[in-house]
Design brief:
343 residues; binds adenine; binds zinc ion
Length: 343
Amino acid sequence: MTELGLPERVRTAPKCELHVHIEGTLEPELAFALAQRNAVVLPYDSVATLRAAYAFDSLQSFLDIYYACTAVLCCEADFHDLMLAYLQRAAADGVVYAEIFFDPQVHAARGVPMGTVIAGLQAGLREGRTRYGIEGALILCFLRHLSAEDAMETLLQAKPYLGALAGFGLDSGERGNPPGKFADVFAACRALGLPVVAHAGEEGPAEYVQEALDTLSVARIDHGVRAIDDPALVRRLAANQIALTVCPLSNQRLQVTPDLRDHPLPALLAAGVPVTLNSDDPAYFGGYLNANLAAVHEAFAWSDSQWETVLGNAFQASFRNETWKAHWLHTLSLHFADDQIET
Ligand code: ADE
Ligand code: ZN
């Protein structure tokens, strides 16, 4: 067992993370350092006051602070530093590959162009690969509380940078912003040949998960935990092997499932839904990938074979090719078969 209470075999396993917002990896210390570098004033007077504000009662109460803190991200170097800090932490948790969301509309609203954001994030990815041996890919997220026209304009701005993107996503306040609002935008994204994902069934109902599948043709659902309320939908997710990128500490901190022992993860897994575990906004929710795994282990004490399945699901649900997936699934199976690792 590790200091997190996570079995050594799970702690050291190779991992793939599919649901992390780069803006949600902004630690308070880095936020204040960047605020000073860019002469930006944060609405908090210290790291301690900012951290103390992380007592969320809903998704919106979190988003208000998350968007406020992005004010410190102004130039390429800021996005580089943010990415590199995330990759260092993720690599320490065994992550070998991450598909990473970013929210360009938040930055455009402060006059930071798409090209600046992407160039900085890509520079961070390159340095992370060299320094820590971790690979990453970018998923551009549209903000669902803004209009479909705004999203379409953002897609136009992204066209020169399509080679830098692994896909498109949909995030921000879910209630009152159903997936169908973005059907045309997502059709345009798919026409560019890139896969699409969407947050659905986090605070919103199971119907939003269904709607994301029907109107957006998403390859995965981000969160999707409310799918548990609709048995037919659960059967559909299992039959079509549509992965859910579940974020346990996020669900706990945003009061989606205040007690993780009540989380639908075991029921979804038992129903054959390919669930994956992820950190969402780790700087705000109490930890990176292994902290999320430790919270799940504390709640459910999964067997090694259950852990191998769940960690394998993430490699399988990634947007990498079949050869790459087969390589990592094999490496994972060797790791779980290695009797030199203490259990
Ligand atoms: N943006 C960052 N984190 C998010 C979350 N958990 N849900 C929706 N939008 C987000
Ligand atoms: Zn998210």
